[in-house]
Amino acid sequence: MNTTANAPFMLDSKWSRFVLSGDRLLPSEISISDGRLSQLNVMLEIRRKEGQTLPISALKTLGRNCSQLLVDPHTDNHQDLIDCIMMGSSLVCIDHRAQFKELQSAHATSQNIVVKLELNSEMLENPEDHLSRLKTLSDMVGDLIMVKTRQPGILEEWWIDLPRSIRSSWRWIMVPAEGEKLPLKNSSRIHSWALSGDLFLSDQ
């Protein structure tokens, strides 16, 4: 548990993606204390309203119970990331739109920080802003980035049009809305995939 972002990884690695709901994980509504989690690398999404604190107790439990834990706490604050790591998270996400000082502080504190890009159809139509941001960040912070979509079809279209210089600057964690691995070309820089958690539970 708690491997660093620079640790070796197997190509085609996978995370089991869940959303935290109280002391349960969705989909499947399994308990955060479920013994099956010890066999899983879990990507956890924490959906919080502005100003809502982190679920510290749940993070502690999952940090102990999961093989590895990648947390998206929906934050642009580096202190939230530090708290997640202290609770046992292996990797933690910070929004790509966070202030530069927050992004730099996060990466200066830990190697286990992942930049998060939440992609929507409007960003495909007007890609200049976020692509410029990614290019700038690639020279400022670590090289792990997570791309999350909520609409099917977006990730494949975006990946095809992504400039080669940006694609080669990052290691990519893919979180497609489809919940399953997609047949992307030029995939040598893909670090891992976060797929629907219920797919992994059926194998337990």
How many strands appear in the DSSP assignment?
Answer: 10
CATH superfamily (homologous) name: Aldolase class I
**Strand percent estimate:** 25-35%
CATH first level: Alpha Beta
Give the ordered list of helices and strands.
Answer: EEEEHEHEHEHHEHHEEH
Low-pLDDT sequence parts: 1-11
Question: Using only CA atoms, what is the Rg?
Answer: 16 Å
Main sheet makeup: 8 strands, parallel, barrel
CATH fold group: TIM Barrel
Report helical residue fraction: 25-40%
User: What's the mean pLDDT score?
Assistant: 90
Q: If helices are DSSP runs of H or I spanning 4 or more residues, what is the number of helices?
A: 8
Structural summary, described in words:
This protein has helices spanning 56-65, 78-86, 100-109, 121-125, 128-137, 154-161, 164-167, 197-201; strands at residues 13-21, 24-26, 30-31, 41-45, 68-72, 91-95, 113-119, 144-149, 171-175, 190-196. Helix 2 runs parallel beside helix 3 (100-109). The chain has 204 residues and is an alpha/beta fold. Helices cover 30% and strands 26% of the residues. Strand 2 and strand 3 form a beta hairpin. The protein has an 8-stranded parallel barrel. It has one domain (13-201): Aldolase class I (TIM Barrel), CATH 3.20.20.70.
Quick synopsis:
With 204 residues, the chain is an alpha/beta fold.
Characteristic terms for this protein:
204 residues; alpha/beta; single chain; 30% helix; 10 strands
